[in-house]
Write a structure and sequence with these properties.
Blueprint: E1 3-5, H1 17-28, H2 36-42, E2 50-52, H3 66-76, E3 79-87, H4 93-109, E4 114-117, E5 121-128, E6 133-137, E7 145-148, E8 159-168, H5 173-189, E9 200-202, H6 204-216, H7 221-245, H8 253-266, E10 273-275, E11 280-282, H9 287-312, H10 318-321
Antiparallel strand pairs: 1-5, 2-9, 3-8, 4-5, 4-8, 5-6, 6-7, 10-11
Helix pairs in contact: 2-7, 5-9, 6-9, 7-8, 8-9
Length: 332
């Protein structure tokens, strides 16, 4: 019987929960140095913007196939990663469950935590074989939770997900920045990230869904606030990223100006959200002003994407122009 606790691994909720989990694990393991906003942008996660047609809270994590998106995030940072996931109703779930328990323990033995769908995303930072439990953090408070090995993957959603990390390769900073703005373009141009389901829009189309739901008034009150909170944080992360990336690519100054204006606009979101007896909600009387702000923000972001597109076109893009020998590549 053995046990491991990674005391230096502390998750803090500040960004998307996957980003918060990834940052906590990689910094604790010495696989990433720098502020969270740089990891958020360089992994492509900051640029992801998804909205359900009725603004349900799962919008924020409903950005397509997690394995594909999250592997892309790690690849862009030069980090080796392994993911596994599925539906708990599948008859093979128990076999995958027990296998995952073993490879997560192995990762912890090597001093690297695991990302785990609680939900939302959190981190596994330790285990105890005697009690047959994992120790889990969700970043919401200083309190930690436990998950029995036999209950691994079981939650109120039909999905389970886990991800671990390994070694790192060096990617030139210029290449990482170029890949970040190309991932931004990919996500901006993709209207639906979970096809064939069109109830969730992404990128440019996400603005349309958000504005329409607010104007119609038939939306999830909690989800609306959660989406706007995530939106405000991610757009500020992009602005901070562009300030540093501009040292490598001065041509990004125009895009930075757009995101600085967008960040200024989004500071008003707090004043349009009030607390009722239980939850934070959007003030109905402020919706016209909010819609006006989002319409302007969409235009600013569209302008920034044109700048990204222009810069991207000046440099080779092997990730998207080279056809792998095992088949055609698809938009990521």
């Amino acid at each position: 019987m053995s046990n491991v606790i990674l005391h230096d691994l502390v998750m803090k909720r500040e960004s998307k929960t996957f980003t918060d989990s990834l940052y906590a694990i990689l910094t604790a393991a010495g696989l990433f140095t720098g502020p969270k906003y740089m990891l958020s942008a360089l992994s492509g996660m900051a640029f992801i913007f998804t909205v359900h047609e009725r603004l349900r809270p799962h919008s924020v994590t409903a950005y397509g196939q997690w394995g594909t998106v999250h592997k892309r995030a790690a690849d862009s940072l030069g980090i080796f990663t392994v993911t596994d996931a599925g539906r708990t109703r599948h008859p093979t779930f128990q076999s995958y469950q027990q296998d995952a328990v073993q490879w997560i323990k192995s990762s912890l033995d090597q001093g690297i935590g695991a990302i785990y769908w609680i939900p939302e995303f959190g981190v596994i930072y330790g285990y105890d074989d005697e009690d047959r439990v994992f120790y889990v953090q969700d970043g919401n408070s200083g309190e930690n939770g436990i998950v029995l090995y036999d209950n691994f993957g079981l939650n109120f959603t039909p999905f389970w997900y886990a991800q671990i990390f390994g070694g790192k390769v060096k990617i030139p900073a210029e290449d990482m920045v170029l890949e970040a703005i190309r991932m931004a373009l990919d996500d901006w141009e993709n209207p639906y990230s979970v096809l064939p389901d069109r109830s969730i829009a992404s990128g440019r189309m996400a603005y349309t869904y958000l504005i329409q739901a607010l104007e119609q008034g038939d939306y999830d009150a909690y989800g609306a606030v959660y989406i706007l909170d995530s939106y405000r944080v991610s757009r500020r992360e992009i602005m901070q990223f562009l300030r540093e990336a501009g040292l490598l690519f001065p041509e990004l100054k125009e895009a930075l100006t757009m995101y600085e204006q967008l960040a200024d606009l989004s500071t008003g979101l707090k004043s349009w959200i009030s607390c009722d007896t239980e939850n934070r909600v959007i003030n109905r009387s402020d919706i016209p002003s909010l819609v006006e702000m989002l319409t302007e923000a969409k235009g600013l972001e569209e302008h920034a994407m044109r700048t990204f597109r222009s810069i991207s076109g000046r440099y080779p893009d092997l990730n998207r122009s080279t056809v792998p020998r095992w088949g055609l590549s698809s938009a990521r």
